[in-house]
Amino acid sequence: MQDYKYRRAGTRNIFLAVEPKGGHRQAEVTASRAKPDFVQFVGRLVEKAYAGAQKIHLVMDNLNTHFRSSFVEVLGVKRAEQMLARVKLHYTLKHASWLNMAEIEIGVMDRQCIGGRLASEAMLKSEVAAWKRRRNQAQTRIEWKFTRQDADHKLSRHYIS
Questions:
Q1: What is the pLDDT of residues 125-158, one digit of tens each?
Q2: Domains of the chain: which residue ranges?
Q3: Which of 28, 30, 57, 74 would be 39's cystine partner, CB 3.0–4.6 Å?
């Protein structure tokens, strides 16, 4: 009998923002997914990737870092309000991450790029950057086929009368 030994080399977080109709995505590997990491990622979206946008809509799950209070805690009230003036937060229902296009894109990234274990953070960053570059150059879009009528049918039991 032979036993398989797995040596864990650590974990990393990947923040991913997807522009489904524009075929563009931003991906960033971080050591953790704590509030400061999340706020800094959104800050880079606001200040660099979408600097010319009047309003950035972010559809997110309900992770404990994904709330306005995280911005206030990390940046202070004034800076948080300045950043969030350009951001509209939308939340998926609990247990409905399949509604989040970034989650769909993460599944694609996992299959095409990081499905196996990678030996180092540098290799992970390199693979994610190459994957992002390929997807962005091809302007790969997400064809969203889930309609409002589909949502009403599937989610009506969650609606409040």
A1: 999 999 999 999 999 998 877 777 887 787 777 6
A2: 13-158
A3: 74
